[in-house]
Amino acid sequence: MTARVALAVALAVGAIAPRPVRAAAPEPLPARLAGRGGELFASVDLSAVFAPSLERQLGNGLTNVVAVWVAIVPEGGGEAVALYGRVVEILFDVWEETYTVVVKDARAPGGARTVLRDFAALRRFLSDERDLDMGLVSELPSGRFVVEARVEVNPVSKEQLQRTREYIANPPATGRPGGSGGSRSFLGAVASFLLREPDPGTGVHRLRSRPFARAEVAAR
Amino acid sequence: MSARLAGAARRAAGALRFSRFELKIALALVIAATLPLLGALLLAGRVAEENLSLGLDPRVVQRLEGIPSLYGDLFQARKQLYAEQARALARGLPRNRSAANAYLASSLERTPRLRRVTWFGRDGRIIAEAETETPNPEGEWREAPARVALPRGGRLECVFAIEARFFAEVNEARELAELVQGVDVLRSEIRRSYVRAFGVLLVAWAAGAAAVGIWLARRTTRRLSALLLAVRRLAAGDLNVQVDPGRGTDEVAGLARAFNAMVREVRESRDRIVYLEKISGWQEVARRLAHEIKNPLTPMKLAFQQLEARWKTSPARASDAGFEQLLGDAGEIVREEIGTLQRLVDEFSGFAKLPEVRPEPADLGEFADEFLRTSPQIREAADVELVRASGACPVALDKALMRRVLANLASNAVEAARPGRASVHLGVSRTRDRAVLTVSDEGPGVDRALRARIFDPYFTTKGSGTGLGLAIVKKIVLQHGGEIEAGERPGGGASFTIALPLRATGPDAPGAPAPR
């Protein structure tokens, strides 16, 4: 629970801060909320985000990253009362023709690996976010609230930022197999130190469910 | 402790207090150092963008990103090829098991990259199989299976070799493409980070230039401040002030040296004037004393002579032998004292009537030599040696007066050595702008505490002296534009050093200096 809270807090800034939105889903986010043993679980359908047209991008043989944040926020707006985040790394194996998926979230910070046999399975895996742990039912607001999902496709990850920093600080070494040798550029080193994470201008989807009342949380 | 801290704080505050001059120099250096770089800063963003555009050509990025797909196509083609070859093998598979073994073995030789082939029956048992042991001609390989269902049941499983390097290559291409993709995504940020980096370096450069500027300026202003302080002290009348010119050779160091020389000269001139004025006063006193003492001496002498003459013709002379004796003794005393007073008057007169210096061109060494040659009384009274350490020492001399200087000093040396025989050492040398004459002896020397007073008129350490000799010496030396200093001879004894200005000897040299 502590690790989950830590991850949630870490991701909250990115999730809640207003950012440019490329496309907003016209339809409400299909979402279900259920309580079990006093804990709240959310299931959302993100199939609107993961359209079949993504197959070409996600099957390009490069590592693709999908970051998903699901939050419960008061209908009128305000800070999230519950938050869940996961980062999914997808790599299409061009020999095996399968999708290797590594999911990192509070429960598995190191990543849980799954192999999916085709894009349909991958799409279902990404779209059908089931039983996301949203904390305690008792923490739900008394008023109406909505489930918000924020999906970023290929955001700049810390690893990518680090690789890029190393690249501009030492381009010859990074670009060469083995990655050694070459002289470091002083200006490049300073520039790499000053390189910041960009605003996620593209590939961001923000979805919002219909309003819920606390009484609608189904008990299982 | 708190006082020490307060002192340190004051010093730190002083170090951080910049004068306007320091700030101007620092500002000039900052501007000179950063102005060209500011232009470069404006171009930095564009240069970075152009470099990124060159390195991240969209077509190159696109092709890089497409490489894994190309390998995917290659793998597809291989798989199709291997499937087709497996099907061809299946079609030719004999029903007989023993013939099948031979067929499969020969198929390994016929079919490129086929490593193993196995015929499974309907029940999954192996009916026939063959596997090659020869190394794969294309190097390291990975298994690429191809399965064919047989029409009469069972299946044929083939294992082909696919080059392992393909997988390494696709991984490498993927990593490179992901890297380039990341750089492409971060392109704007990279450009901005380069501009920021350039800005940071520019600020560091400017700070460095400012620090160097302040350091350089402070080196100069510190000396200028010291000079300013010294000028203020000089204006307040402190003629002993000097500034440290340091080891530099720049204009400020030159100014400091010139200031020191000027102050020295002013001080020496003032001392000279003060001394000469004092001597003039004493000369006036001597003149009046001589006059006042000399006037009654003759009447006194005549009156006593008359008294003696009258007594010689007096009838009472024969009967008063005691008075005769008394008168004789008194006459002797009176004549002796009158003689002493007469000598005193003569000395006072001589001191009061010191002639003006009339210098003529001369060589100091030759003058000293001549003095010795023409002063037998000195050579008789003392062992005298002359050392001429330098060549020509052209000076302007009033030889008669300067002879008096040497005679006085030599006489002092002779008297100081009594009852022994004096040893007098004369030395002539020269410095950059002075001819130096040294007169030293091996006597008891001059007490250090008295050295400052021995040139004062009427100051003497001798029982019978008038204290005018050294005053006369100093006056004559000063009137020659020189200085005299009493000191100690190495090895013991007194030493008097006379420094006279060298006379210019060039074609444009002026004549002898005017007497001072």
Count of distinct structural domains of chain A: 2
Second-tier CATH architecture of the domain at 360-501 in chain B: 2-Layer Sandwich
| Strand numbers in spatial order across the main sheet of chain B | 6-8-9-11-10
How does the helix and strand content of chain B classify structurally?
alpha+beta
- The CATH homologous superfamily of the domain at 360-501 in chain B corresponds to Histidine kinase-like ATPase, C-terminal domain
Characterise the protein shown here.
- The complex is a heterodimer of chains A (220) and B (516).
- Chain A is α+β, with helices and mostly antiparallel strands.
- Chain A has 2 domains: 2-156 and 198-219, no CATH class; 157-197, no CATH class.
- Chain A is built from 6 helices and 11 strands.
- Chain A has helices spanning 2-16, 55-58, 119-127, 158-169, 171-175, 186-194, and strands spanning 23-24, 31-36, 39-45, 64-74, 82-93, 98-105, 112-116, 128-136, 145-153, 204-208, 218-219.
- In chain A, the strands form 2 sheets. Chain A has a 7-stranded mixed β-sheet with strand order 1-10-9-4-5-6-7. A 4-stranded mixed β-sheet of chain A has the order 8-3-2-11.
- In chain A, a hairpin with a 7-residue loop joins strand 4 (64-74) and strand 5.
- Chain A is globular and about 60 Å long.
- The model of chain A is unreliable at 1-25 and 174-182 (pLDDT under 50).
- Chain B has 516 residues and is α+β, with helices and mostly antiparallel strands.
- Among the domains of chain B are: 252-352; 360-501, Histidine kinase-like ATPase, C-terminal domain (Heat Shock Protein 90).
- Chain B is 60% helix and 15% strand.
- Chain B contains 12 helices and 11 strands.
- In chain B, the strands form 3 sheets. Chain B has a 5-stranded mixed β-sheet with strand order 6-8-9-11-10. A 4-stranded antiparallel β-sheet of chain B has the order 2-1-4-3.
- In chain B, strand 1 and strand 2 (126-131) form a beta hairpin.
- Chain B is rod-shaped, with a radius of gyration of 58 Å.
